[in-house]
Amino acid sequence: MNTRHILAAACAATFAVTSAFAGGEGWTHDFAAAKKQADSEKKDLLMDFTGSDWCGWCIKLNDEVFKHDAFKTGVKDKFVLVELDYPEDKSKLSEETQKQNEELQGKYGIQGFPTILLCDAEGKPFAKTGYQAGGPEKYVAHLDELRAKKETRDKAFADAGKAEGTAKAKALVAALDAMELEDETVGAFYGDVVEQIKTADPKDETGYAKKLAMKQKFAEFGKKLNESKNHDEALAFVEKSEGEFEGEQKQQIVGIKAQIYAMTGKFDEAIKTADEAKAIAPDSAMVGQLENFKKNVEAAKAKAAAAPKEEGKEDAGE
User: Fold this and answer.
1) What architecture (CATH level 2) is domain 214-315?
2) Is residue 42 left, alpha or beta, with left meaning phi > 0 and alpha meaning psi from -120 to 50?
3) CATH says 17-144 is which class?
4) What are 92-144's pLDDT values in tens digits?
């Protein structure tokens, strides 16, 4: 092979490596290497779980944010960038990388794409986000806000190390709450902290153990509800269960009851039940959803009321 051919092959290989990353240069597929780099350079990990050739929001995030120099400059001193891709075209990833990505998807409980996890150098997540509109500068500012969660977490952990009993438990709870992670993620990566809370607060003065138990109970409720064979069975189960919960969890359950009424054409009951759900936790984020739900039900009710009249006109030849 002559020199021209050698140079051409080298250029092609370089292009293949670069183009394998949806966000362009500066990313890695190697999670283990990324952790080592983050540790040595005192950086955090930005993990992008993406479907680079089929996920519309993933592609938008790449095109609007990750490909731009303003993003790369804004994060280069803070994060090691890790792209974990789940493409339809598997040929762009080695079998080893595909296996690694499948394992990480399970480990981090990734349900949708794009999911952006911010993790420390050990791979412990401290914040989660996804697509955000506004371009690279705004996204970098968003990441800086999320990165502050780690500082809050670490300070709370440090405070807990100096405390005992309920004070220690409260500091640990504050650390977990600051990250706003899903319960499954907390259990997978901070299970030791959860156990420390229980040990430090055996009487559950923080209420954390009760909170965990109720979340587990709510998850079991959802699983059993999905096993219902029809609307009547689902409605009976919901009515039986709603008295076992309180606060926003009860609000969600009563909201489900309203949805069942709507799906079975009982529009008045649905509207009344939605109002009951709103009253349970009037300051919750779900209230806005219930308002929209009521509007949709009222529209469906009006449409159903008009339908017989329209049919009558057709029968009369009008």
Assistant:
1) Alpha Horseshoe (1.25)
2) left
3) alpha beta
4) 899 999 999 999 999 999 999 999 999 999 999 999 999 999 999 999 999 99
